[in-house]
Structure formats: C-alpha cells, structure tokens
Amino acid sequence: MTKRNPDYDFKWCPGCGDFGVVRGVELALADRMQRLGEPVEKTAIVAGIGCSGNLVHLQEGPQPFGIHGIHGRTLPIAWGLKASRPDINVLVVAGDGDFLSIGAEHIGPQSKRNLDVTAVIMDNGIYGLTKGQASPTTHLNVVTSTTPYGKLDDPVNPLEIYLGLGVSLIVSAVSSRPKELAQLIGMAMDHPGFAIVHVQSPCVTYNDTYEALKGNAKKGIEPAAYDLPEDHDPSDMASAYQHARSGRIPLGVLYRRPDSVPMHERLEKAKAAHSAKQRTVDEMLATFVV
Ligand SMILES: Cc1ncc(C[n+]2csc(CCOP(=O)(O)OP(=O)(O)O)c2C)c(N)n1
Ligand code: SF4
Questions:
Q1: Residues lining ligand 1, CB < 6 A?
Q2: Spatial distance between the Cα atoms of 90 and 174, rounded to a whole number of angstroms
Q3: How far is the C-alpha of 171 from the C-alpha of 185, rounded, in Å?
Q4: Which bound ligand lies closest to the C-alpha atom of 58?
Q5: pLDDT tens across 151-188, in order?
Q6: In a mutational test of the pocket of ligand 2, which residue from 124, 130, 175 has the highest number of ligand atoms less than 8 Å from its CB?
C-alpha cells in the first residue's frame, strides 16, 4: 500500500503530542529507505493498544507492514516476527500504559536477549484512549478518574528502569521536535540490538504537560526537559544514571552499550559453533518415542 487506509477513522485530538511522533517515524522511515535503498515493506510496525498504538494506522505516505496486537504484548509479537524474519526492520509503537504497566514484564527478557527491535514509546503520563486513568508515569498527587484524591503511588522512572534492565540503546526525546526525533529513531533502527526511544508526548485532553516540559518564565515554571550536555558519554553508565535520576527529563542519547550483539547474531554464532550436534526435527521427535 502506498497510502493509509481511508476507512480507518480513528482521530487524535488536535494538539496531541502523537502527531509529532508519527511525523518523526515517517521521516525516519523515508530516510532509511533512501539511505539503505530498502523498500518500505522491509519494515513492520508492531503497535500497542491506546491512542499511541493507532500510529500504525495514521501514517501518511508509503506504508510499512503493520500489526495491531493485544494490549501490552508488542514485545512478544516483535520477538516472534524477528525470530522468523531477522532481516525485517521491526518498530514497536506503544504508550506508557501499554509498555510500562501491563507490558512491563516483557522489557527485561528482551533486554537480556538484546532483541534487535526499536521501541518508540509515547509517554503522556495517562491512559488516553480509555479516557484518563492514572498510568505508571502519572505524577504523584495528580487527580485522574482512578485517583480522585490525587495519585498516591510514586511514578516510575522509565529511563532508570531501562538502564536497570540492560536495554542496549536508550534515547529520550520530545514529540515537539519531530525532525530531531526522526534522526534519533533512525539511529535507533540502525543500532544492532534492543533500542528504546522514550518520547514525552503530551495528552492535551487528559494530562497536558507541554508547559511543564517547556517551562514558562512568566509563571516562574522551570522547563522539566533539558538537552544532555555535550560532554555526556553515552557509554558511561554512571553518567546515564545521574541524568536519569536528575528529577528532570534529559533529552538525547542517554546510554549506548558499546559491545551490543543482537539475539539473532548470537543464535547464528551458536548454530555455527555447534553444527555437528544439530538434529533434524524427526531425530528430536524420535527421542520422545520409546
Ligand atoms: C487486556 C486489556 N486490558 C485493558 C484494556 C483497556 N485499555 C485499552 S488502551 C489502555 C491504556 C492505554 O494507555 P497508554 O498505553 O498510555 O496509551 P494512550 O492511549 O495514552 O496513548 C487500556 C487500559 C485492553 N484493551 N486490554
Ligand atoms: S486523548 Fe490524549 S492521547 Fe488520546 S488522542 Fe486525545 S490528546 Fe492524544
């Protein structure tokens, strides 16, 4: 397909941060196609459930393959896809609720496997599609439909979680800078291993964080987001932790594992090293028969 499906009529609210993210994805894919001479069909987008996951339907221009799966299970689907077709460029798109709540249990295993996919996470600090329930990244004391007295649980720190779980490339970005986001997503897709691009993507309807991110000097609001300093070395885990724990939102390449070997390359090496021991399916089945 060269154009998105006109029959899919889901619409984001005007001003939703996800518009900047879809633009970033479109630009990154166009650049990849040109740079690598790769057809768009070499990419598959695996989407989570939420306003964010609808990105897979709302992309303009040449269409990659898309899978809109079940809530929280983008990574298992991406793993299946990548295990059978390691040549496919797999992009996961999901929200903070999908990825960090119901889907959180999958991040650790795929980090350890170093699954070669890029996950673009749209963090709006709320469940948008289901009309504004608190998510793991909703801040303390924020009133939502499920936290009428203000949120009582501490918010999770996604960057710290990714560092702790050993994600091999961790990028932090904002949806309001789509060209920069495109460049970061492109770099993440080129990375051999598990890459997460965590994007602050405000929900204007249920949790508008534009002002908090950008700041407002007139109101005395300091910007929560800041660019990582030039002397930040992404291979320096201690520095990455320091910025992740700054209480603010560092923007840029937070961490990159220098010796990143993805899962499918590990498998190829193991197969080559143990080729003499490999058995056919019939031989394996025969071991179960007495
Ligand atoms: C198993 C299951 N539980 C709950 C839901 C309802 N549900 C749909 S989307 C969603 C949360 C979406 O939040 P998030 O991932 O942050 O995406 P957003 O809509 O904010 O982009 C929930 C709880 C579901 N579809 N499936
Ligand atoms: S509800 Fe929020 S996240 Fe969903 S489309 Fe509207 S602004 Fe975007």
A1: 48-52, 71, 95-98, 122, 124, 126-130, 135
A2: 21
A3: 9
A4: 2
A5: 999 999 999 999 999 999 999 999 999 999 999 999 99
A6: 124
Residue 14: which residues within 8 A CB-CB, separation 6 or more? Answer: 204
Cβ of 216: how many Cβ atoms within 10 Å?
12
Q: Is the pTM of this model over 0.70?
A: yes
Q: Which listed ligand is nearest to 68 at the C-alpha?
A: 1
Q: Order of strands across the sheet with 65-68?
A: 65-68, 43-47, 89-95, 117-123, 195-200, 169-174, 249-256, 225-227
Which CATH superfamily is 18-286 part of? Thiamin diphosphate (ThDP)-binding fold, Pyr/PP domains (3.40.50.970)
CA of 125 to the centre of ligand 2 (A): 11
CB-side exposure of 174: number of CA atoms within 13 Å?
19
Residue with CA closest to ligand 2 atom 5 = 12
- In tens, the pLDDT along 37-85 reads 999 999 999 999 999 999 999 999 889 999 999 999 999 999 999 999 9
pLDDT(1) > 70: no
Ligand (nearest to CA of 47): 1
Domain residue ranges of the chain, discontinuous segments joined by +: 18-286
DSSP class of residue 261?
-
Give the phi and the psi of residue 162 in degrees, each rounded to 5: -60, -40
For the stretch 88-115, pLDDT in tens is 999 999 999 999 999 999 999 999 999 9
